[in-house]
Amino acid sequence: MLYGPGPLESRTPTAPAPEEPRTDGQPGDRELVERAQKGDGEAFATLVERHQRQLFRLALRMTGSEADAQEVLQEAFLNAYQKLPLFRGEAQFSSWLYRIAANSALMRLRRKRRAPDSLSEQPLELSGPRFSAEGYLDPPPLSDWSQRADERMMSAQLGAAINKAVAQLPEDYRTVFLLKDVDGLSNEDIASALDLTVPAVKSRLHRARLALREKLGEFFQESGK
Amino acid sequence: MTSAIHHCKECVELLGEYIEGTLPPERAKALEDHLSLCPPCITFVRTYKATRKLCRKALVAEMPRELMSSLRSFLGEHVPGFGCAKPDTAAEAAPAPADTELKKA
């Protein structure tokens, strides 16, 4: 099993997780959770509104299907509502929520009896830069194609090359890369959702980026741009 | 005491933390010192950062409006008092973390 989220409740009581103050004047998650725990459905609705987009991305990245992501979201939010009395604020509410959604996604994948990496036909060995015995880049980068990232329009061929390269990443690397670099989740939230350590998240992320950089370099070299 | 970075391999290993700004200052300084002397690594750093940007552009996924509506309807049926909360504009698509700009590249 690649991911295995553990129990949703901490085993030992710890201090409440610190919460960043919001800049928009809206109540923070902690206040909304406390109100929802007392039966305030509007407060729970605000929490759903606030977190649904990131939860959708997590579910989409894990299941690879918009229809499955929709089911995961419904199940995860309903599950979160039912478990709300158990939430004691020892983690950020968002991290707790991500973990519930990750559990739902995994359950769904298991029920369908398929591997989580449905996007990937043949996972590639992770490639990366090569070095000489002395530790120098060998060969050195042939061209600097970084300015292409600033162009407003992306060609269909480049878009297809990116989709293919990402789909061919091993599933556990791909999910971490998408959640972090495309969806903008924090390392801590990814670690919590996927039951990884933060160093493991950073390591997978870096290796995924190196492999994708190689593939994009090959694309630009072959396309002569 | 800061140990210098003499080889590209060490530079590449530190890149992930460097561009996220989480590398200890003395290691970041050693990396920048290496970059100031190593054009291939400058190109490597630029293309490493560009990889993130290009992938984000190509793969960003937004939650469809109709899915938001169906989620609201579903929860409205199952959660007592689940009303129509005002949209929380601050929760719009979270941007990817900003890069730490290279000072010398």
Q: What is the beta-strand fraction of chain A?
A: under 5%
Counted beta strands of chain B: 0
Give the overall shape of chain A, derived from the CA principal axes: elongated
The first-to-last residue Cα distance of chain B is 25 Å
Oligomer: heterodimer
The assigned CATH architecture of the largest domain in chain A is Orthogonal Bundle
Q: How many alpha or pi helices of chain B?
A: 4
Strand content of chain B: under 5%
Give the total of domains of chain B: 1
| H and E order of chain B | HHHH
Outline of chain B: elongated
Write a concise synopsis of the structure shown:
The complex is a heterodimer of chains A (225) and B (105). Chain A is mostly helical and 225 residues long.
Describe this structure in words.
The complex is a heterodimer of chains A (225) and B (105). Chain A has 225 residues and is mostly helical. Chain A has two domains: 29-111, RNA polymerase sigma factor, region 2, helix turn helix motif (Rna Polymerase Sigma Factor, Chain: A); 146-222, Orthogonal Bundle (Arc Repressor Mutant, subunit A). Helix content of chain A is 56%, strand content 0%. Chain A has helices spanning 29-37, 41-63, 66-83, 93-111, 156-167, 171-182, 187-194, 198-222. Chain A is elongated and about 65 Å long. The model of chain A is unreliable at 4-13 (pLDDT under 50). Chain B has 105 residues and is mostly helical. Chain B has one domain (8-83): Orthogonal Bundle (Arc Repressor Mutant, subunit A). Helices cover 56% and strands 0% of the residues of chain B. Chain B contains four helices and no strands. In chain B, helix 1 (8-20) packs across helix 2 (25-35) and helix 1 (8-20) crosses helix 3. The model of chain B is unreliable at 89-105 (pLDDT under 50). At the A-B interface, helix 2, helix 3, helix 5, helix 6 and helix 8 of A face helix 1, helix 3 and helix 4 of B.
